[in-house]
Amino acid sequence: MLRPLGVATILATVLGTAWADEACTSASCCDSGDVEGLMQVRKTTGEIHISEASALPFGLTAVGTDMWKQRTWTDVVSEVQGTMALDDTCATDTGGTCGLTDCDIWHGPTECKAGKCLCPPGFCAKEGKCWPKEASSCARDTGGSCWSFNCDGSRGPTFCEEHKCVCGLGHCAWGGKCLPMTDTGGTCHMMGCDATRGETTCHEGRCLCKDGYIALDGKCTKL
Fold first, then answer.
1. What is the SS3 assignment for 69?
2. pTM, whole model, 2 decimals?
């Protein structure tokens, strides 16, 4: 017979410190104070199967709500960490050349040194492109210019600095556009995000700013 799981049992199961052959899939069967409809846990042939784990408001399986619909800087960093693992040596030479012309924007954020297109600090060369090592590795130059005209609106929030289209506060340049920074740096592995961070949502264990907010100094600020 299925019996309700308490919060402590659920947390213990998620952390791998307890086995359970119980289920709690509705508010009526949960102990007082439990999160409604959290998950169903079963022990089958030595394995724990967790369904509806994303219903948890925290943890590595949490799915954020009211998140940015457009691509964000956090998305770029996640892609690198998930599919473009960088080795410990962190090469900086993209293989591109420069001198008479600037480095091709395809290489990502680069610096022209001795005729070579090199990745700036915080970036590593992988397959000819400079990838961010972490969320704090943020380039501002979109590659656009503003000698005679304003920066193109398609680049996002920019301003003209020394005839270059540079991303505004809380945004990072990638692919010629300014992407919003949404990662506050806070985590929510075992509990929700701290209220002091502002309008956040827990997504895969990270405290991210909701749509319309950007991360500045660890807090979400209205754009």
1. coil
2. 0.67
